[in-house]
Amino acid sequence: xxxxxxxxxxxxxxxxxxxxxxxxxxxxxxxxxxxxxxxxxxxxxxxxxxxxxxxxxxxxxxxxxxxxxxxxxxxxxxxxxxxxxxxxxxxxxxxxxxxxxxxxxxxxxxxxxxxxxxxxxxxxxxxxxxxxxxxxxxxxxxxxxxxxxxxxxxxxxxxxxxxxxxxxxxxxxxxxxxxxxxxxxxxxxxxxxxxxxxxxxxxxxxxxxxxxxxxxxxxxxxxxxxxxxxxxxxxxxxxxxxxxxxxxxxxxxxxxxxxxxxxxxxxxxxxxxxxxxxxxxxxxxxxxxxxxxxxxxxxxxxxxxxxxxxxxxxxxxxxxxxxxxxxxxxxxxxxxxxxxxxxxxxxxxxxxxxxxxxxxxxxxx
Length: 365
Prior knowledge:
Strand content: 5-15%
Order of helices and strands: EHEHHEHEHEHEHEHHHHHHHEHHH
Shape: globular
């Protein structure tokens, strides 16, 4: 199974390759695009300016390093839709990425996908998780538009994934393994990531400082401290709002009161994510205990979410997945394998994993 890791700077390519990444993905938020549309009219779905490379010169540098190391780089143009005014400029951006010798494009917008197919651009197309491919019919639809890979939503069960793989065996399936366990379906979400930079400028500056590569473990220490606060306190309004503002990039842009309001919503969230789940942790998630089930279901690419994360966090994530795969190869006892995965998690991150983070509760249970 391939390990797909995120980058937002060329200097991250080599350390991630050393850690065990076999593919990389990124986006470019160029100066000309920012001047025309700002980061909120994003060229990719993750709209924080720090999530993306700032120029195609940086992309070319990253691609040169990666290709010398034998690693593919996929470039995201996965905003769910683009306006008519944006489309001409979008095509210019895409052509520049192709000219830089990107290995694949991650695409969500049907107009862009159709354009790439009709013009036979000669580059692999990966269907973004934003497209919410929940069944084989959807996978086949995108395949007819030229897609060679589908990035599956992280809400699918192992059985649902296996059904897609069985009905569409000739399309590559990519699945999330770390950091993206949000309660919302990305393909149905209309939240504007990046609002923090506009509405809470001071908070954003603080977050960027914590996400600085040299201070990359600072946020991890804050999250670890939060985990020792009783859940009843975490869910209380004032504490939850303050913690969310400082720990979760998304909820800091809005008024957040976790699990308050609709009893039905609270029940649904708890049923799917467990009683321990809290948005204050900033969208954590882990699926390494289920790597065997993912492999057997038909997933061949393991995606680590987090383009905005500090380099140290990305490296730790890749090391965790690589070592879990190594353990899987030599393991015949599923219980012993899961125990080893939990030990690896503690060793790298400094706290125990929990059911609230688990992608595959049906496997772990």
